[in-house]
Design a protein that fits this description.
- By secondary structure, the protein is mostly helical.
- It contains four helices and no strands.
- Helix 2 runs antiparallel to helix 3 and helix 3 packs antiparallel against helix 4.
- The protein is elongated, with a radius of gyration of 18 Å.
- The two termini are about 25 Å apart.
Length: about 150
């Protein structure tokens, strides 16, 4: 069981760590006002999702399923595990349905901004939306982390 827990925690660090640091670097790039820096950050945020967030999520899911099955944890009623799974599903929906399409739009728009030398308004609009949905997609896993550690609510 300890090996699965270690894998689970590595997954949490990869996923939560990446979503927090990706936002940090994107905001810092936006503050420069430099289209080249902004475009590089937009591309790197997407790349980091594939390198860190997705593998972290897979580690969380596989190890979490194994540990829940071995411990006999209940998936009926509202408990820390079912609430965590609901929040994880909500995070996934925000990420897949909103953030990934917005990140693709940010990459396309920032590439045009590099060509023109000015930050396009569609980049600014998509960036604001990304920030709003990104905050939700970051806070939900933090709540899950709290529930996981405290095993209750």
């Amino acid at each position: 069981m300890h090996g699965w827990l270690v894998l689970h925690l590595i997954g949490v660090v990869l996923m939560v760590g990446n979503i927090a640091t990706a936002a940090f670097w994107k905001v810092r790039a936006d503050l420069t006002g430099n289209p080249v820096v902004i475009h590089q950050a937009a591309r790197n945020v997407m790349a980091a999702d594939y390198v860190f967030t997705i593998p972290g999520l897979l580690l969380i899911l596989v190890s979490g399923i194994v540990m829940a099955a071995r411990s006999g944890a209940s998936l009926s009623g509202l408990n820390w595990l079912t609430v965590s799974l609901i929040l994880l599903a909500a995070t996934g929906l925000i990420w897949l349905g909103l953030l990934i399409p917005l990140q693709r739009k940010l990459i396309r728009s920032s590439a045009r901004s590099v060509e023109t030398g000015t930050i396009a308004e569609d980049y600014r609009r998509a960036s604001r939306q990304w920030a709003i949905y990104g905050i939700a997609a970051t806070l939900l896993p933090i709540v899950i982390l709290y529930l996981m550690v405290m095993k209750g609510f």
